Amino acid sequence: MPNIKSAKKRVLIIEKKTAQNKAIKSRISTFAKKFKAAVAEKDLAKAEELYREVSSLMDSAASDNVIHANSANRKKAHYAKMLESIKEAK
Questions:
Q1: Residues near 67 by Cβ (< 8 Å), separated by ≥ 6?
Q2: What's this model's pTM, rounded to 2 decimal places?
């Protein structure tokens, strides 16, 4: 437990930022699951809409340093490949 005033303040700030980051990551995860479900159902319109949403969320999180930029780009590329696979199937 911190004794110095500035250290106590940092603990509060870190807890707040941790909660914000967790909420952002959870939102990304939720949309990624919905996207994967749409791809599994081969619902092209829904998958394209969810892809735009999840890629936007990842870009936003990467710009805020919630997730690493390379990780966001790698996942977006993977999801784009999944989307292309259902486009080719139709």
A1: 25, 28, 58, 61
A2: 0.89
Answer yes or no: are the C-beta atoms of 79 and 35 closer than 8 Å: yes
CA separation for the pair 39, 44 (Å, rounded): 7
| Pairwise CA distance, residues 59 & 83, whole Å | 18
What are the structural domains of the chain?
Answer: 5-89 (1.20.58.110)
Q: In the structure encoding, which two tokens stand for residue 70, read together?
A: 């390379």
CB 34 within 8 A of CB 22: no
Per-residue pLDDT in tens (0 to 9) along the chain, 90 residues: 899 999 999 999 999 999 999 999 999 999 999 999 999 999 999 999 999 999 999 999 999 999 999 999 999 999 999 999 999 987
In angstroms, the Cα distances linking 13 to 2, 7, 9, 16, 17 are: 13, 10, 6, 5, 6
Residues 83, 47 contacting (CB under 8 angstroms):
yes
